[in-house]
Amino acid sequence: MESLLNPPLSLKSADLQQHWHELAVEERKPFFFSLASDEAQIFFKDLSTAEQLDLIGDLPDAERFAWIRLLRLDDAADLMQKLPEEARHHTLALYDERTRRELIGLMAYAEDAAGGLMNPRYIRIRPGMTVGEAARYLSSQARGSVEIVYYAYVIAADQKLVGVISFRDLILANQDATINDTMKKNVVSVPEQMDREEVLGLFSKYNFVAIPVVDDEGRMKGIVTYDDLAEVAQQEATEDMLKVGGMEALDAPYLKVSFFEMIKKRGGWLTVLFLGEMFTASAMAFFEREIERAVVLALFIPLIISSGGNSGSQASTLIIRSLAIKEIRLRDWFRVLRREIMTAIVLGAFLGLVGLLRIVIWQHWHPIYGEHYWLVAMTVAFSLLGVVVWGTISGAMLPFILRKLGFDPASASAPFVATLVDVTGLIIYFSVAQSLLRGTLL
Amino acid sequence: MESLLNPPLSLKSADLQQHWHELAVEERKPFFFSLASDEAQIFFKDLSTAEQLDLIGDLPDAERFAWIRLLRLDDAADLMQKLPEEARHHTLALYDERTRRELIGLMAYAEDAAGGLMNPRYIRIRPGMTVGEAARYLSSQARGSVEIVYYAYVIAADQKLVGVISFRDLILANQDATINDTMKKNVVSVPEQMDREEVLGLFSKYNFVAIPVVDDEGRMKGIVTYDDLAEVAQQEATEDMLKVGGMEALDAPYLKVSFFEMIKKRGGWLTVLFLGEMFTASAMAFFEREIERAVVLALFIPLIISSGGNSGSQASTLIIRSLAIKEIRLRDWFRVLRREIMTAIVLGAFLGLVGLLRIVIWQHWHPIYGEHYWLVAMTVAFSLLGVVVWGTISGAMLPFILRKLGFDPASASAPFVATLVDVTGLIIYFSVAQSLLRGTLL
Predict the structure, then answer these.
(1) Scanning A18, A359, B196, B424, which has its CA 20 to 30 A from the CA of A1?
(2) Tally of domains in chain B
């Protein structure tokens, strides 16, 4: 993920990327090793860690090292963390002493902390230099492999971060002014232990290109750049979406996850949902007498409960997303509730009407609903209104409740809400039936 | 969305942002107008178009203009496109002739085309300059309000884009070399009509900071910067997530969408799902005789069909997301199918076993399932295996089929898959029952 730091890719490299992503997974490795070496090197740096690992994980130590050495230190550390222990040791042994120490330091951070994302190499200048001196110094320092983003960080003698100056200002500012007078003070920085999701929040809120990482004493440890976060952003979006679909996030691409891992990630939630859904069997058993007397009631059970589930999924997905992008806050819950109830009444009444017409019209062609078909139709219609309103309220309020209790609102997944609403949907349906059909069918 | 172009925000402004996002929606306007004018100005530029509109939409023309004038031209055009026609005219009239023409040009682009996102002001230099001349020229040109990203674009006499040079290279390169010899040629650019989703794809694939927009003749029209795209990325993710939840994307924040619009966006899909779900009533009617004879079968209907729905939602969400982030391609469908079948057999067998134990154990405490409870338990267990396998296959293959047919795979939403699987789940259940229970209960 090097390209932010370089001028825009040439068309050639863009074409390569395009082609790569169109290849089937098993064709990618042969394609990669068929590239000319300079093409392959540029291309390799732009791949995700998982893709890099896949390409070079099995190579002999020296060859693997030749590839890893191309990467920036933070990316190299990410990749090495995923290597088997032995391979990691062999690779580390091939680095020079200073770089090895830096890498070991980086690998010590939790993968999802700011420290685990940062690059320890950045442009540092002293506050006492003039702008012109800094520009010339930078020019000599920057020709090496130091990571260049468009900022130089101003570090005092005690290693504390005291300011930042952009390349733009190095060009535009008075060349004789001191850095101290030209730099921006009060730089936003993040502590090395900050969770990467929080770091991501800062980046997307302020459109930072890079953000410095400091330790407890305010000493600068490295920088996290936008391109590192792009991968994080994608992973977080994936996590959220899979949660909404009712499963745990996977740690690797779909085709790379082990079979056992896949079963574990999916089986957990599926079993929880299944256990929840078992209450429907108990609820149904409770109404067994009613079903026996009026089998016609059983016909509409799937229609009724799924309508509740669908309206609940809609509401919960909408609210989860609105909370995530901060369109609404916890304290807006009552406004949301009012709005959702109004919406649900209209939608529920409409579905109820459609259901009623369906039964009444159908009866004229295939008279299967018995002489009391009008009563059955009314039962279905009112139940639909009831379950849609109840499903919508549950779906809309559950994310608020989860957030309030400190859980991730995204856990209010479509299947979870549907399961929750199924049991109550049955109770609503049979209660309506008991009141409307007493004395006729029941 | 100005901050990419400036050095990192000071802590003060970051705190303001934090505070703003914690406020309830109705508290935001009073808070904004209570800010000191310089604070408010910086802060205003960082808000989304919808938030800006909300703050200044109702102001008198002159005051509204004072705010809009602070924005970059592309952001100003976005905002003005959302103003009522009269207010738009009045605001345009307050601009100088040149800027008005640029704004009208920008507003003519479709909102979701590259041209609609771009800023027509960028740094342009001539190929014949030396690097040193360019740096000095840039320094004079850039002090004004021209948009500065970290690239200067090299434009030939015929207005064609011939190359690009980064500020970094302007500092690092030999100051006496010509721009022509130093610049990168073969710049990646996008046509002005390119869809913003495609532009976004380029940005996230290559981590561009900015990308030039050219017309059919290769003449440069403006630049699209990363910060413009950040908003687009969020909108696209929202669209996808809402689709997965079974509804159409909204055009405005949750609390701003009109009631009628909300009903329309949710009612459409809900009705389609409802009509689909009506087939369950027909399927159930088909098996009415079986239900009449063995009411106990009815008890497990919700459990069986929802298990199919849940496993289908999991599979479809997983595949939708893997397709979206290109972990898998259309041609991988067979590998995915094989994998999903294996996964589903294990998961289905497990749920079947749990269901079987539930019935057999429960029967010892509450003997409600009759003398043939073992047969009922077996029926439920085999049906569960069947619906989980079928649900998973449907959920996993549907996104591939939609993509193949040219639709968005995200339309294979959890509720859609659940509805699809409900009807077939019933058929599987009653077919298993017919084979296992013939001669005893049926």
Answers:
(1) B196
(2) 3
**B305 belongs to a structural domain:** yes
B14 contact residues in A (CB cutoff 8 A): 188, 202, 206
In terms of residue numbers, what domain contains B416? 254-437
B181 and B232 share one domain: yes
Query: How many residues are there in chain B?
Result: 442
Structure tokens, B369: 């399932």
Name the residue type at position B320. Answer: I
A107/chain B closest Cα distance in angstroms: 24
B294 plus B148 within the same structural domain: no
To the nearest whole Å, the CA of B367 is away from the closest chain A CA by: 11
- ipTM entry: 0.71
Note whether A332 contacts B151, CB cutoff 8 Å. no
**DSSP category for residue A23:** S
Q: How confident is the model over B48-70, as a mean pLDDT?
A: 87
B183, closest residue in chain A (CA to CA) = A7
Kindly state whether residues A322 and A425 are assigned to the same domain: yes
Q: Return the minimum-mean-pLDDT range out of B2-6, B218-222, B397-401.
A: B2-6
Q: How many CA atoms lie within 13 A of B84 on its CB side?
A: 9
Is residue B300 predicted with pLDDT exceeding 90?
yes
User: How many cross-chain Cβ pairs, A to B, lie less than 8 Å apart?
Assistant: 415
Q: Single out the residue in B244, B269, B286 at which a domain terminates.
A: B244
Verdict on whether the full-model pTM lies above 0.80: no
Residue B234 and residue B129 share a domain: yes
d(CA A150, CA B7): 9
pLDDT of residue A343: 93
- Residues of chain B neighbouring A430 (CB-CB closer than 8 A): none
Cβ atoms of A351 and A389 closer than 8 Å:
no
User: B342 vs A259: CB contact, 8 Å cut-off?
Assistant: yes
What percent of chain B has a predicted confidence (pLDDT) above 90?
A: 19
CATH number, position B167: 3.10.580.10
Chain-chain contact of B274 with A138 (C-beta, under 8 angstroms): no
Instruction: Kindly list the distances between the CA atom of residue A4 and the CA atoms of A190, A397, B220, in Å, as whole numbers in the listed order.
Output: 21, 42, 22
- The shortest CB-CB distance from B148 to any of A25, A168, A414 is to A168
pLDDT at B440 over 70: yes
Chain A residues in contact with B46 by the CB 8 A cut-off are 206
Name chain B contacts of A202, Cβ cutoff 8 Å.
14
- pLDDT score for A218: 85
Element (H, E) at A303: helix A301-324
Distance from CA of B339 to the nearest CA of A (A): 8
Least confident of A85-94, B7-16, B260-269: B7-16
Classify B149 in phi/psi space as left (phi over 0), alpha (psi -120 to 50) or beta.
beta
Residues B418, A247: C-beta atoms closer than 8 Å? no
Above pLDDT 70, what percent of chain B? 91
Residues of B in contact with A270 (CB under 8 A): 307, 310-311, 314, 347, 351
Residues A321 and A235 in one domain: no
pLDDT tens digits, A198-210? 787 777 666 677 8
